[in-house]
What we know:
The chain has 204 residues and is mainly alpha-helical. It has seven helices and five strands; from the N terminus they run αββααβααββαα. The strands form two sheets. A three-stranded antiparallel β-sheet has the order 1-2-3. Helix 2 (42-62) runs antiparallel to helix 3, helix 3 crosses helix 4 and helix 4 (113-130) runs antiparallel to helix 5 (133-149).
Amino acid sequence: RDIDKARQLYDDYIWSTWGPENEAPWYGGITWKVDTGKSKNSCSNGPAALIAARLYRFFAKAGLKGGKCREAYLNEAVKIYNWQKSVLFDRNTGAVWDNINSRGEIARHMVFTYNVGTFLGAAHELYNITGDSQYLRDATLAANYVIESMTVNQGTLSDAPGGDGGLFHGIFFRYFVKLINEKDLDIATRTRFRDYTTRLATVM
């Protein structure tokens, strides 16, 4: 079954790279690649938190425990998310930084829309599970960073027409649109987000 494959992929190849929690400079985090254990990246932690949260939701909805206690998936999703928020997220601006390397250097100069997208996607997923409004505030702050700090050329995103830009932005918009449709989002924020996507769609 697809769910068995997803669980195996997460348990054996993703969560297994977590940490170690007591080793500097990372103190946790999911490895970027299995052969690059000294780099902890947003592109591995955001998606990992999403997968763990969705595994929890699947088993909770089905009333099943799966290969391990379903609450363990939620605990791991929260742990991964909290690590990324603490290490690779600017709580003032909403920027999602790319990585922390083996020397403890954080690539604050590297902010990509796909990393913002999976971070806000994980935040939104955890909000739907827990009802904790802080997750919704985190997701909103991250989305606003893209609008305020990554938008150029009269309302477009840089490098959108070519290269990897379209793919990167596509990942962002996948989760951004889900956030726009969140019923608990306040009207002013929803209107701002909706108008932004409309402008992007018509300015090209």
